[in-house]
Amino acid sequence: MSVPLPSYFHYRRVDVGGVVVNCAVGGVGPPVLLLHGYPQTHLIWHHVAPLLALDHTVVLADLRGYGDSGKPAGGPAAYAKRVMALDQVQLMEVLGFRRFAVVGHDRGGRVAHRMALDHPAVVTRLAVLDIVPTRHAYANVDAAFGEGYYHWFFLTAGGGIPERLIGGDPDFWIRARMTARHHGGTPFDPAALDEYVRCFSDPAAISASCDDYRAAATIDLDHDEASFGQRVECPVLALWGEQSFVGRTYDVLAVWDEYAVDLRGSALPADHYLPEEVPTHTAAALRAFLG
Fold it and tell me: I need a labelling partner for 243 at 20 to 30 A (CA). Which of 99, 145, 235, 282 fits?
């Protein structure tokens, strides 16, 4: 791996119900699980994790279907956020943590949100980065959403279309997606980008990530609709980029207020990739929240 974490982070591969989850663990203190988004891996946290590890035990995990975690077949049902959340709960239990805080960016935020709903006795604090709930996003689709989040619809297409097109040039797809949603701040680490491309060049990863989005448009919406009205019980922090689609489109705190009992949050001077664009701001906000 070309983007090293500090030497006190140790890698593990943990089998959780037949799916191997790749993770790195470092630091001392209360446990916090960090979950990445699309199209990345746990390395989105490579700036932030060492800062959190000053006073927390930090677990950085690849979601199923991403990075060096397992990529099971099974279609969208295998990538329901309920299933992906259970992977991570089981991972933390194997690591010795029955209660922990969770921080999720992008897709990881959706997994973390479902985790807090399904496992309220486990999640002590929830931070969601640059998202509004999936249910709200789909309920408010308009032309601006279709243009800004076109990949939500492209990736759900059937017939192997997105898999074939992305698989023709995954390097271009990754770099184009990420640079289009970066606004100043710290540049992406070239070695991190190379690592994202390496992982995403696996056809199984492309297929899995498409099923992740297909699940969001189907089974996840069913789960979200069934649990609407159930608010997250633990404290919730929402962070978003001032220049991101989320920041420019939604009253983020007003949206999340329907889904959380104890909510706080703010915008950061970035676009979408907060942990890489403004890692110092992101880490400071998270450390203040996590305590």
Answer: 235
Q: Per residue in 72-125, pLDDT tens?
A: 999 999 999 999 999 999 999 999 999 999 999 999 999 999 999 999 999 999
Per-residue model confidence as pLDDT tens digits over 176-186: 999 988 888 89
Task: Say if residues 281 and 268 touch (Cβ distance below 8 Å).
Answer: yes
Residue 272 appears among annotated catalytic residues:
yes
Cα–Cα distance between 274 and 242 in angstroms, integer? Answer: 10
- Considering only CA atoms, which of 237, 245, 247, 289 is closest in space to residue 268? 247
Hey, what domains does the chain have and what are their CATH numbers? 10-290 (3.40.50.1820)
Of the residues 62, 68, 106, 211, which is catalytic?
Answer: 106
Catalytic residue among 42, 105, 223, 272: 272
Please name which of 150, 157, 156 lies closest in space to residue 176, comparing C-alpha atoms: 150
